[in-house]
Amino acid sequence: MQIQILPTWDGLTLSQILKDLFHIGKKARHEMRMAREVLRDGQPIDFEKPLSSGDILTFSLHDNPITATKAPLDVRFEDQHLLIVNKPVGVKTHPNDPTETNTLANFVQFHLNQSKSGTAMPVHRLDQTTSGLILFAKHSLSLAALSDKLMKRQIKREYLAILDGVLEGDRTINQPIGNDRHHSGRKRVSPNGQSAETHIHVLEKDKAASVTLVRCKLTTGRTHQIRVHTSSIGHPIIGDTLYGGPKRTKRVMLHAERLYLSHPFTEKNMTIEVAPGADWQSNKKSFTTL
């Protein structure tokens, strides 16, 4: 894997770049230094020597890939550092144990194996019942940098949802989310939970069908956040029976539509968007003209 030193990194040492920009831990930086597997012009690099804009560094990374499974994959962006794919509804993001091999991460690993171009490392996740965009890192440096951006809320995500009932205007829900002690698979609004903020923008209303199409913007990214927050205001997502939504469709009407980020290795601002697929459209037609 190669990276090119950007003008904004001119004069920094590799130690500074790994620590301050890519957020690589002290142990991992030490292992890289001792292995002498970071090269410039074919020679091991001095980690404390200032680098110049345009320098090209070659890294030998030993990431452990998961089991690869062949399956269709809708790739929306890819370079040597990261991959953004459109997850279909009904597919898990990643395996919970090595015996699971039919998750999106397994499919991504098969795709990467075809060009020997990396390891499938999801930066965030979507519920199995949600479709849309997921960001994968292709190596450990990328995962560290992207995870730091996610933690600092520098990766923005927007979702489409169809809610039960007519929502009269835009809403911001700022309610903490915690575990539901009465149901192991559910979350709930809880004063002792983690902070969570969801901005809801009304796009269209269908009063006859008593539904509202909305776009949700997340400030935080808690498990089931949109599902919990919309349910808490009396407008659960259509099809989301876990949180009180009416079963008017064969799927939960929630789709991760947009992803915004600054690329950690090029500093280019990226906007990736994907419209809901045919299954969303066919399910929607069964209950509304939206």
UniProtKB/TrEMBL annotation:
Give me the reactions it catalyses. Answer: a uridine in RNA = a pseudouridine in RNA
Name the domain of life.
Bacteria
One Pfam family of this chain? PseudoU_synth_2
Organism lineage: Bacteria, Bacillati, Bacillota, Bacilli, Bacillales
**What's the protein name?**
Pseudouridine synthase
**Region of interest called Disordered, as start-end residue ranges on this chain:** 174-195
- Might you name a Gene Ontology BP term for this protein? enzyme-directed rRNA pseudouridine synthesis
Domain (Pseudouridine synthase RsuA/RluA-like): residue spans on this chain: 81-231
Name its species.
Listeria fleischmannii FSL S10-1203
